Amino acid sequence: MGVASAFAITSLPAAYATPSATAVISEVYGGGGNSGATLTRDFVELGNAGSAAYDLAGYSVQYLPGAPSASSLWQVTALNGSVAPGGRFLVAEAAGTGGSTALPTADATGSVAMSATSGTIALVSGTTALTCKTAADCAADGRIVDLVGYGSALVREGSGPATGASNTAAVARSAALGDTDDNAADLSAATPSPVNSAGKTPGSGDGGGDGGDGGGDPTTPGTVRVHDVQGTTRLSPLAGQTVTRVPGIVTGVRTTGSKGYWIQDPAADADSRTSEGVFVYTGSATPTVGVGDSVLVSGKVSEYYPSSTSQSVTELTAPTATVLSSGNALPTAVNVDATSVPAAYLPTAGGGSIEAAALEPAVYAQDFYESTEGMRVAFSDARVVGASDAYGELWVTVKPDENATARGGTLYSSYDQPNTGRLEVMSLDTTTSFPTADVGDELSGTTTGPLDYSTYGGYNVQATQLGTLVDNGLKPEVTRRQKGDELAVATYNVENLDALDAQEKIDRLAHGVAVNLNSPDVVALEEIQDDNGATNDGTVTSEATLKRFTDAIRAAGGPRYQWRYIAPTDNQDGGEPGGNIRQVFLFNPKRVSFTDRAGGDAVTATSVVKTRKGAKLTASPGRIDPASDAWDNSRKPLVGEFVFHGETVFVIANHFTSKGGDQPLHGRYQPPSRSSETQRQAQAAEVNTFVKSLLAADRNAKTVVLGDLNDYEFSRTVTTLTDGKVLKPLITTLPAAERYTYVYDGNSQTLDHILTSPAVTHYDYDVVHINAEFADQASDHDPQVVRIDVGRCRRG
Q: Which of 40-44, 71-75, 100-104, 106-110 is predicted most confidently?
């Protein structure tokens, strides 16, 4: 039998050298199917001595021969589900040719042929095979939660292995599940007595996992219903079991990608926590059923994890189906709107998994969606809050008044209050083009379809009926031109621009600078690649890229910009491999001059010198401490010294490390870990220190810090950057409904920033919305500009 899907978890328990008061290996039997055996297969039983359910998602049990050789490998059986307090969890392993009694339905199944007399079993937090071959090495591996060596096993806990294992005897703990980390003392020979999570023992259930039906008329429903499969938590209580002839009406069919169909039982139970719908996964086979068919489906109950940190989708896999009739009325759709979706987002578990917690659909929005997973849902007249993308997806809000932005989106304004009304929408109709929608448009009428879950975005509607798109005419913004005595400084992430890009992309980005930004005096660009883009051949210069780009700006009516940058060391600044992205200063020499001061390169830091005329840089352009660990595999800030109307202005262009590796808002670990913040905070501290050195040399130094910080205005990254009130984040000066530069998963949010030092007292700031809200984007970021009245900021 196949190994259940599993994914690594992020919070690892201590090494097994610490006795466990919770999950332990309670019984091991390797004689299944051997001569004289009654049971037909080997097994490992887990127990939980704790007072709370023990989550096994992403765990495994692993087996090593008792006397491992150099070529011996640990064999892995992945786990899912959880062990109830005081409960058991049964892992079935290889079957032999003998025996007459089947195990009770296993909670997980592997194919490891264990020795009856000598071996080692480990419970491991992870699914990567162990490599240790000695007791000491294994004791040092923090992934091992518990370990049992039996017979003459060399790898064991304590003074010696548990003894007495044979074809007819297991090694087992006492009912109290005591663990002193001494296998010889904790386990002893016993008659094999496997117990599964349902409390079943051999002979007390069907042992074959057919939903308790045990055969019967193929046109008669079995005893299991969809709500039994879904259960009252995020994990099915029947996971790993085979269920037989589950009845339902087909409500949607997916013939591309992850193929399959949804069934829903029209005879709902009285428990609001249990969904009546489930996805039937057919793999590469195109489903042969149609919407409206009444079917009986047999298959294995599985929990599919789209990613290692996501929630799971309960599915029936390896299915067989009998169509009883066609053209049946579909079950009534669950209405999804501001009254049905709760205001709270998700329960928390101190960063742990929420999967074992009972659903509270009247309290939490994500619990409400989980309780309708696989069921038909419907919403009406919903505003688009995330534009259509290349994958045929868009986002709507079913709560029109929830944190609305000035242009029709939904603002993401804090970690503790994620927007609950957002839903991703896809279409199951492969014959009709998906609508091209911008933020602020509307899906008029009713959209209906099964509710699904995916890695990107979480819960989504697989529409069988899509509302009609109403174009509300959102237009790209154009900012005003700076006045003669205003220095205009802008930032724009141009999304991996290189000299090999199509002219259309270059022209559109150039139009954004020349027209929408109205030709700022200085433009800090992020994501300028080297001259051959992702070609990984050692090229690091961007001269051809910048020549094409500035020519296009000129053709669009902008000035003849000059540029300054520092080329990175090949493949040391992150981004697309071979692309060598970097920040670049464009400046209009007819309006502002750049102070060139030699000495800056990819590995040499610029610093600040105090002079009688104020602060100056030792190298311009220069980089901030490029040798610091804060910039490992990330872009180093570019610092430049400019002069406008006789006044020196320092500009620091940034592109902090991305959010890659953070757990999703909608994932199973709550609250989600934002591990990427650690490096951004270190980067922010470096920039903050540099700004403080400028102000120490000249407290009136006019400084502009800007760029793609990859973090929110309420994040610790920004508070670290502003520590000591040396910088003011200008995004906070806008009305709340205008504080965004990027749209992700239907959330309008701020990732790009301009901050200014205290001497910049007179300014006009604008985020120019030209990309993020539109299906047709030149970049995924919106640019922004600050116009500084330098004369009014002079000393005194």
A: 40-44
Angle between helices 503-511 and 543-555 (to 10 degrees): 60
**327: which 2 tokens?**
């053209």
Cα–Cα dist 3/221, whole Å: 28
Return the number of other C-beta atoms located less than 10 Å from residue 407's C-beta. 18
At which residue do the structure tokens 């969809």 appear? 226
Question: What whole-number distance in Å separates Cα of residue 644 and Cα of residue 702?
Answer: 11
Cβ atoms 102, 207 nearer than 8 A: yes
Cα–Cα distance measured from residue 566 to residue 530, given in angstroms and rounded to the nearest whole number: 11
β-strands 60-65, 119-124 pairing: antiparallel
Write down the pLDDT at residue 505: 97
CB atoms within 10 A of CB 571: 15
Q: Side chain identity at 78, as an amino acid letter?
A: A
Residue with tokens 């920004």: 718
Helices (H) and strands (E) in the chain, counts: 8, 41
CA proximity to 66, closest of 102, 145, 104, 119:
119
C-alpha distances in Å from residue 432, one per residue of 155, 447, 464, 465, 591: 61, 15, 11, 11, 52
Nearest Cα neighbor of 729 from 658, 784, 792, 649 is 784
Structure tokens at 497: 């621009």
In degrees, to the nearest 5, what angle opens at C-alpha 147 toward C-alphas 141 and 153? 105
Pick the residue with more confidence: 568 or 85? Answer: 568
Paired tokens of 779:
């970049």
Name the DSSP class of 398: S
Half-sphere exposure of 659 (CA within 13 A, CB side): 16
Residue with tokens 């839903």: 423
Enter the pTM of the model.
Answer: 0.76
Map residue 162 onto helix, strand or coil.
strand
- Write phi, then psi, for 644 (nearest 5 degrees): -135, 120
Q: Distance of alpha carbon 404 from its chain centroid, rounded?
A: 25
Q: Give Cα 384 to chain centroid, integer Å.
A: 22
Mind listing the pLDDT tens digit for each residue in 363-390?
999 999 999 999 999 999 999 999 999 9
User: What backbone torsions phi and psi does residue 86 show, to the nearest 5 degrees?
Assistant: 75, 0
Distances (CA, A) of 60 to 2, 38, 41, 125: 14, 26, 19, 7
Interatomic CA distance for residues 78 and 127, integer angstroms: 6
Instruction: Give tens-digit pLDDT for 649-665.
Output: 999 999 999 999 899 99
C-beta separation of 583 from 655 below 8 A: yes
Buried b (16+ CB within 10 A) or exposed e, 242-274: bbbbbbbbbbbbbeeebbbbbbbbeebeeebbb
Q: How far apart are CA 135 and CA 154, in angstroms?
A: 7
**Cis ω for the linkage preceding 671 (within 30 of 0):** yes
Please state the φ and ψ torsions of residue 229, each to the nearest 5 degrees: -65, -45
One-character DSSP codes across 641-658: EEEETTEEEEEEEEE---
CB 251 within 8 A of CB 376: yes
- Measured at the CA of 299, the angle between CA 110 and CA 314, to 5 degrees, comes to 80
CA distance 511 to 667: 39
In degrees and rounded to multiples of 5, residue 411 shows phi and psi of -80, 135
State the DSSP string of 67-126. Answer: S--TT---EEEE--SEE-TT-EEEEEEEE-S--SBPPSPPSEE------SSSEEEEEESS
Short-list 337, 499, 350, CA closest to 423? 337
